[in-house]
Amino acid sequence: MKLSELGEEALIKRLAEQGFIAKSGSGLIVGIGDDAAVLPGPDGMYTLVTTDMLTERIDYLPEWITPYELGWKCVAVSISDIAAMGGLPTWTFPSIGLKPDTEVESVDELYRGMAECARRFGSEIAGGDTNSVKGDDTFSITQLGQVEPDKIMLRSGAKIGDRILVTGHLGDSRSGLELLLKYGTEEARRKFAHLVESHVIPMPRVQEARAAVGTGAVHAMMDLSDGLGADLPKLCKASGVGAVIYADKLPISDELRRAADMLDMDATQLAASGGEDFELLMAVDPAAVDSVILACGSTTEIGEIVDGVIQMSLSDGTRQSLTSGWEHFAQ
Ligand SMILES: [Mg+2]
Question: 219, 239, 243, 287: which has the highest count of C-beta atoms within 10 A?
């Protein structure tokens, strides 16, 4: 069977079933299946570990993104996973594979982006590896973080009746990508600077996650990397629940609506299925929705955790299945 037929989720399950990956317990507090692994840490804290890979032509095209932005994005996507666990980033380890004819100055820019992103969120590059590649450039970031045991946020804690909240806007990053595809980098950046920026310099929600967790009212949390339609089912599966999302409550920016018109795409669809938003998805105690919104800032209630399947409710009251987002290995 080919990887493209199996898919990423089934691949991970297959490897786990063969006993290649440690299970939670016996030293590993939380293993695979959440945004980061959780290990016992110093001074009674938990240590968080996550790793993320970006590959040229799969995750980005070099003509669309500067080396600085690429460095920033590589680190931001890993820091977002630490935020999703309720933690604070601590140390960053980039492993990079570059073509031998890469200009040294562009490697400086790449590392400037990585270092600035790490420092912006309290982390620091502490090591890593460099290698040469014959094909496409590859970047793998291992990000460490820490969290107090009573503040850790897992995907598995959602309860029926919880409200579903997301930070920021959804679909901006995906529309930025679509604009780059359609118009090329110069025109896309001139017409829709914010949307392209959302795609190339994502801002992980570290402070918002800490503020949300501080309310004590968040039962489950993850970050949106593959799109709401792909990520919400992961949270629901981990918690053994279903969900209803209200299409007309999805936080859609005015700029996304304008872009959707120009792209001849549906703004709601972009918001529901677009990947790389790196916003937080939370299941929140229904009595404390307002306090979480107040603590986090720009945050929107978009649905409810239910006993049953995952559906999107449209403005006419009909319900449909939530469109899935990004699937690795799909062709
Ligand atoms: Mg994640």
Answer: 243
What's the gap in Å between 34 CA and the centre of ligand 1?
7
Residues 146 and 178 in one domain: no
- The CATH number covering residue 138 comes to 3.30.1330.10
Spacing, Cα 326 to ligand 1 middle (Å): 13
Q: How far is the CA of 225 from the centre of ligand 1 (A)?
A: 6
- Residue list, CB under 5 A from ion ligand 1: 35, 81, 223, 225
**Token code pair at residue 111:** 């590392």
In terms of DSSP bridges, do strands 242-246 and 129-132 run parallel, antiparallel, or are they unpaired? unpaired
CA distances for 55 relative to 110, 141, 143, 159, 330, angstroms: 14, 12, 17, 37, 15
pLDDT in tens, 60-94: 999 999 999 999 999 999 999 999 999 999 999 99
DSSP letter string over 260-291? HHHHT--HHHHHHH------EEEEE-GGGHHH
Ligand 1 center to residue 31 CA distance, Å?
14
In a domain, 10, yes or no: no
Give the pLDDT of residue 316. 85
CA of 105 to the centre of ligand 1 (A): 31
Please tell me the predicted confidence (pLDDT) of residue 331.
40
Query: Are 222 and 124 members of one domain?
Result: no
Could you tell me the distance, in angstroms and rounded to a whole number, from the CA of residue 102 to the centre of ligand 1?
30
Distance from residue 80's CA to the centre of ligand 1 (Å) = 7
Given pLDDT bands bounded at 50, 70 and 90, which one contains residue 9? Answer: confident
Q: Of 125, 151, 177, which one is at a domain's C-terminal end?
A: 151
Domain extent for 258? 155-321
156 CA to centre of ligand 1 in angstroms: 14
Say which DSSP state 320 is in: E
pTM of the model: 0.94
Query: What is the whole-number distance in angstroms between the Cα of residue 204 and the centre of ligand 1?
Result: 11
Per DSSP (E only), the strands in the chain are: 37-40, 46-55, 88-98, 124-125, 129-132, 138-147, 163-167, 218-223, 242-246, 280-284, 299-306, 310-313, 319-321
